[in-house]
Amino acid sequence: MGRGFAVVDLETTGLFPQKHDRIVEVAIVHVSPTGVVEGVWETLVNPMRDMGAQRIHGISAAAAARAPEFGALAPSIASLLRGRVPVAHNASFDARFLAHSMEQAGLACPDFAYWMCTMQLAGTFLPGNRSLADCSAAIGYAMENAHRASADALAAAALLRAYIGAGQDPAWWDGWLATPGEWPDEPFDTAAWLARTDSDTAPRSVLERLHVDVATDAAVDDGSLNLDYLALLDRVLLDRYMSATETDDLIRFAAELNLSSTAVRRIHRAYFDGLVSAAWADDQLTADEWADIQKIGTLLEIDAETIAGAASKPDAAVPTLSTGFRLSPGDTVVITGETRRDRAAWFDILTERGLIPKDSMVKKAKVLVAADPDSMSGKARQARAWGIPIVTEEGLERLLGLGAGE
């Protein structure tokens, strides 16, 4: 069991764990009694709800969905903190949040009195500074990637090192180190931890994940266009965005239908050709139509030469492979997560168009609008179970014919 400090930083969905806010990232930095960094551990956490203030922490629901839930991490967090003084910048927040999360996992944290706060200590060592950024600047530490848990924890560790080296009576520090508080004695295991950078390595591409031997693939392909796969593809592309969840759905459905990668590639090309043909139906291509063609072509992994060729009118018209999904007066639209546009403003816009906006999920909803379409909120999980499309806020603007600034 190490003797020293454990600097903690948490990224969360919000400020109030008692009101269902949850941890989405944890970082722990071990620091020796003399202020030397001895180890860094970090992981995303699956909050099993919407991601909250993503504009602050910058974590996508797709990344968090691949991470373990807090309950699976709690024993290793306790092991990393056991025997060390817990430290945080604004420790009252991290201590309160961690204690609540540990309690939910069936474990206990030491009382807040055992925590050291680098923000409070700034009043002694760095008069006039309080924020982590200001304190870091005051000691000449260059912060990077603010609001990434590991970056903030390392910045707080640098502050701690500066405080230790500032000439405070060694007995004062020894007093802290002598009473680190009692943490649960659980097995030390961080094998399940998933750092933010590691979460981005999983392939998102449908065709990349369907890749098989080309000769074998072509041999089993019958040349048809599967209409069921086409219908799902069309629904996925309603908002001109393919979320990680939707990519997984397409992969799973292609496997259920026993579609080869060659067959899927042909369906994607047929969908793209139909879109191009529809755009050229009036013998002109607007800037918006061209942008839409390029976006869809990229999402469907159409080769660059074919996309570029769509700037010219095709020789022959081909069918548009679309379900013609539309929002009509009387349709119910549900919204979840922290949208860019104020929720009340969205309700006004939807009501003006004869639509029925709701905060709660209902089975008759035509569409769910999510700040992050990979959201793990209860509403998003229910929408998926009921087969209700989930679209981005920009997708809703497109369905309503709104510009982003309207």
TrEMBL record:
Cited CDD domains: DEDDh (cd06127)
Q: Is Nuclease one of the keywords UniProt gives this record? A: yes
Which keywords does this chain's UniProt record carry? Exonuclease, Hydrolase, Nuclease
- What InterPro entries does this protein's entry cite? BRCT_dom_sf, Ribonucl_H, RNaseH-like_sf, RNaseH_sf
PANTHER family in alphabetical order: DNA POLYMERASE III SUBUNIT EPSILON (PTHR30231), PROTEIN NEN2 (PTHR30231:SF4)
Q: What is this protein called?
A: Exonuclease domain-containing protein
Give residue ranges for domain Exonuclease.
Answer: 4-169
Name the SUPFAM superfamilies on file. Answer: BRCT domain, Ribonuclease H-like
Is Nucleotide-binding included in the keywords of this UniProt record? no
Gene3D superfamilies in UniProt:
BRCT domain, Ribonuclease H-like superfamily/Ribonuclease H
The molecular function GO annotations come to: exonuclease activity
Entry superkingdom: Bacteria
SMART domains hit by this protein: EXOIII
